[in-house]
Amino acid sequence: MTDNINPNVKEGWNGPGRKDGTITPLTPEDDALHIEVGKKNQFEWWYFDAHLEGGYTLVAFFYAANPNPGLNAGKIGVELVLLRPDGRKTQRFIKYKKSDFYASREKADVKIGENYLEVDYSQDSLPVYKIHLDEDELAFDLTYRCEVVGWKPGSGFSHFADLGYFAWVIPFAKARVSGTVRDRETIMEVSGVGYHDHNWLNFSFSSIIEYWMWGRIYSRNFTLSYAFIQCNEKVDRHAVKVLMAAKGKDIILSTGEYDFIQENFEYSSAAGHSFPKTITITTPEILSVQLDVHRVLEAEDMLSNFPALLRFIAKYILKMKPGYFRLNSDFKLDVNHDGIKFEETGNTLHEIVTFKQLGQTS
User: Fold this and answer.
1) Between 3.20.20.70, 3.40.50.300, 2.40.370.10, 3.60.10.10, what CATH number should domain 204-362 receive?
2) Fewer beta carbons below 10 Å: N end or C end of the chain?
3) What does residue 205 show for φ and ψ, rounded to 5 degrees?
């Protein structure tokens, strides 16, 4: 597959080419506050998730400025999502005033109301993060003990011509998670595996996106994190691709040079979109992974979350029809590292946001 490349889109790779010959270490400041809070068209958020033993999945956002379209766009707040083993989901966004917000510019130290995230670098090994959120019927008190070093693709920045920049860092792609979750009156001791990334930008990223696919893979020896972002005609359908692979705690691959093949599309009436049931990611002579969808955990028409008037404007005037998928897939991973070939299998979650029908010829 040949990717569209717009020469006016400047990705942050160290090179040679669209990859990192030398990986830039993450610093504590990378996970600190970057934007001027309250300034127009500046957005920033800290994202955490955890896949827990017993089948629960949770997601937590700390927003300095929410990037998502709708009534909460640009708002300070927190968001809590709990997906239960039976498929029931609770999702809450709670707005806060600027006076209720604090974030350090030196490290990950954020407080929004009584909610907070913090990091401890005093351990001899890798950092330890703690998050606390307590809103309405949900509460998360979790400790994340990092198992992979922090990473960013090159400088972490991509500049989209004269539109603006998008920055993305992953303070940890894999961590051991422990703590408690409150689901209404039920408090559960939990453990599992988790992930954290951090984004900031100075324009509406959704205005240039056709679709975005991303996920992680945890196998016996390896951790992978990937994103494939297909931009629209505003930037000549430029394709942004990032892939990180770690063996144990150490990064062994940081690249945007890989093939991303989507096959076997299936339509979902719930989302109003199709999704690929098979995804294959290949970097020649280094690794290949195939994802085969086992179960659709979530399929959602994202306009259903909009108030009626905004939904009408988005659908009929702005011609927006965003869809979202959270997918559970079986994977087969082949890696060639230091002359040794590894073949590993497992199960993983990955996600899609799309503004166009997938599986159609452009």
Assistant:
1) 2.40.370.10
2) N
3) -65, -35
